[in-house]
Amino acid sequence: MQTVVGVLRGGPSREHEVSLKTGAAMLAALPEERFDARDIYIDKEGTWHDHGRPIAPERVLRQIDIALIGLHGEYGEDGKVQKLLDRFGVPYAGADALGSALAMHKLAAKLHAREAGIRTPDFRHVERAEDAELAAFEVTRAFGQPVVVKPVGWGSSVGISLAGGYAQVLTAIEQLFAEGAPSVLVEEYVRGREATVGIVEGLRGEALYTLPPVEIVPPEGDFFSYDAKYSGASREVCPGNFSRVIAEELAIAARAIHRRLGLRHYSRSDFIVAPSGIYYLETNTLPGLTQESLLPKSLAAVGVSFPDFLEHLINLALEP
C-alpha cells in the first residue's frame, strides 16, 4: 500500500518562488512505486489548494499520511505550519514548531549558539523603528565598517545588506522596518570564507550524520546575498577547500547548534571561516532543495541520492 505524501509548497513568504522549486523537486523525486505524492499549493495569501482548487487545510490534511514541507521563510520555517500539522496529528519531516521558531529568530539562534560556546559576530538588536537613529549611531562607532544589516525573522538571505557609515546603516534599518521586518540585527561584518554544513539524523547509522562542508564563493565584491544564492553567480565547492581541522570544527559546531536548538531530522547551518576562527551565522530548518541548493550537492558528494534522502526523511517522520 502506498504512503500518501503531501508536499507543501508556495506559501505567503518572500521565498514563494524558491519554495515552488523545492516542492517541485520533491514531487519529481518521490519514488512512484512507494509513494502517492500530493501537490499541496499554498498561495501568497495563505490559501491552500489541492488539485488546483482552494481547500480548507483540515480537509486535505485528513487525506495524507505524512507531510514534506517545501516551504521557506515565514509560515513554513517559523513554526506556524508545524503547529497546524500538529493540531491535526499529521507527521512531518523537519523541525517541530519550537525548534523552527528558535532557528528562524536570528537573535534567539545567536544567543543559543553563544550559550553552546559557538562564536558568532557581535551585534546590535534594533527592536523598534524609532530606535533606528540611535542604533545606527552606536554601531558606526562600535563596529568596523561596513556592517551587515538583516531582518530577524526572514530566511534565505532575504533583506540582508552590507552598509557602511551612519547614513547607509540608518537607511538599511529603516527600509527593513518599512518592509515589515519584526526587528533588525546590525551585525559585525566578519571577513572570511563562507561555509555551510548539513546534518541528517540517523543516516548510515549515525545519530547526527554530518555532511561535508560546502564552501561558497560569491561573485567578486558580493557576499552570499539572496541574488548571489539563486542567480547561479556563486560557486559552491563540495567538499570545501578546508583543512581537516577546520572541517572538523565546522562539523562539531553544526552538530552542537542542531542539538542546542532542539532540531530534528535535518538542518543546514551557515558559518564564516575567518583567520580568527569560525563564526556561526544562522541555521536553516528547511533548507532549499532546488537544483541550485546546497544540501543536495553535499548529499551527492557522499553518494546519497535525492530520492533516497526523501525516503529517509519520511521514515524518520513516521517512526513512533
The CATH homologous superfamily of the largest domain is called: ATP-grasp fold, B domain
Rounded to the nearest angstrom, the radius of gyration is 19 Å
Distance between the termini: 19 Å
> Which structural class should the secondary elements be placed in?
alpha+beta
Helix content: 25-40%
Mean pLDDT: 94
Compute the number of helices.
11
Main pleated sheet: 6 strands, antiparallel
Instruction: Identify the CATH class of the largest domain.
Output: Alpha Beta
Strand content: 15-25%
What does this protein look like?
The chain has eleven helices and 15 strands. The protein is an alpha+beta fold. It folds into three domains: 3-92, Rossmann fold (3-Layer(aba) Sandwich); 102-119 and 191-318, 2-Layer Sandwich (D-amino Acid Aminotransferase, Chain A, domain 1), CATH 3.30.470; 123-188, Dna Ligase, domain 1 (2-Layer Sandwich), CATH 3.30.1490. Helix 6 (132-142) crosses helix 7. It is globular, with a radius of gyration of 19 Å.
Please outline the helices and strands.
Layout lengths: L2 E8 L5 H14 L5 E8 L5 E3 L2 E2 L2 H5 L4 E4 L10 H8 L9 H8 L1 H10 L7 E4 L5 H11 L4 E5 L9 E3 L2 H13 L5 E5 L4 E9 L6 E3 L3 E4 L8 H5 L4 E3 L6 H17 L5 E9 L2 E8 L9 H8 L4 H13 L2
Parallel strand pairs: 1-2, 1-5
Antiparallel strand pairs: 2-3, 3-4, 6-9, 7-8, 7-9, 10-11, 10-12, 10-14, 12-13, 14-15
List keywords for this structure.
3 domains; 15 strands; alpha+beta; single chain; 5-stranded mixed beta sheet; Rossmann fold; 11 helices; globular
Quick recap:
The chain has 3 domains: 3-92, Rossmann fold (3-Layer(aba) Sandwich), CATH 3.40.50.20; 102-119 and 191-318, D-amino Acid Aminotransferase, Chain A, domain 1; 123-188, Dna Ligase, domain 1 (2-Layer Sandwich).
